[in-house]
Amino acid sequence: MENMHLIGLSRQMTLERQIDVVANNVANVNTTGFKADKSLFQEYLSPTARDDNFAAGRDRRVSYVQDRATFHDFAQGPSEATKNPLDVAIDGSAFLVVQTAGGERYTRDGGFQINAQGQLVTLGGNPVLGTAGPIVFQPTDRDITIAADGGVTVREGASRTDSVRGKLRLVGFTQPQKLLKEGNNLFAAGDAGTPAPSITSTVKQGFIEKSNVNSVTEMSRMIEITRAYTQISTLLQQQSDHRKAALDKLADVPA
Question: Taking the alpha carbons of 229, 232, 236, 242 in that order, is the dihedral positive or negative?
Fold first, then answer.
C-alpha cells in the first residue's frame, strides 16, 4: 500500500478514537461531577516506510499520526444550588470517598440521600464514607448541617445542641491522571497512589458540581473531526481513482 494511503488511514483511525472520546463527553454534559476526557497525539516515524522523492533523491522516514493516550480534565465544573441539605459541592481538587462492591471509589458527585438504614448514600446507593466509616443518621435527626471541612452535625429529637454524625472524607492523589474511570463519575485508585487527606479543599452544602464539559466546544469539535474524516476519505478515494485510471491506460498501451 502506498505511503499516502497509510498516512491517511492512520489519521482516520485516530479520528475514530477521538470522536468516541468527544461523543462520551457530550453524552455526559448533564452528569453531576463528570470530568471530561481529552486526547493526546504524537508523531510516529515509520522505521521501514520511506519517501524516496524527498529533496532530490534523498529519502526520509514517513511520518504518521498516533493517538498516544487520553487524559482526564479535572477542571472544576460549575456549582448549582439545589437547597438540598444533603448535597455538597467540592471547592478544590479533592474527591469524596464512597464504598462500592468493588471497594473504595472516588467521586466529585455530591448528590446524596439517606437510605432505609439511615446511611448517607449516593444516588446509586453507594455508602458515603466519613473519616470513621459510613455516616449514619438516627430516625429523630433533623436540621442536618455539613460544614466546610466536611463535618456533619444534626439536631437530635427535641435537643437544641448539635450531635456529630461524622466527617466526610476528602482525599487527594499525587498522580490523579492515573485514576481509572468507572462509569460516569466514579474513579478507582489504579496507579494514582494512596489517597491522602486533603487539607485545602472544602465543601459547600446545598450545592452540586455540574459536569465540566463545555457542550458548545465539544459539539464544535465533533463537527471538526467529522469533516476531517470526510476530507481524508475523499482524498483517499480520489487517489485510488487516479491509480485505477493510470492502470487502465497502461493496459491499453500496445505491447
Answer: positive
Ordered DSSP codes for 83-122: --TT-EEEESS-EEEEEETTEEEEES---EEE-TTSBEEE
Q: What is the pLDDT of residues 207-239, one digit of tens each?
A: 999 999 999 999 998 899 888 878 777 777 766
Count of beta carbons in the 10 Å neighbourhood of residue 39: 19
Distance separating alpha carbons of residues 78 and 32, to the nearest angstrom: 10
* b/e 119-139 (16+ beta carbons within 10 angstroms → b): bbbbeeebbbbbeeebbbbee
Give the pLDDT score at 57. 47
- The pTM assigned to this predicted structure is 0.79
Do β-strands 103-107 and 186-188 pair in parallel, antiparallel, or remain unpaired? antiparallel
**Residue reference for cell 460516569:** 184
Structural domain boundaries in the chain: 3-74+213-252, 79-209
* Segment 22-35, tens digit of pLDDT: 999 999 999 999 99
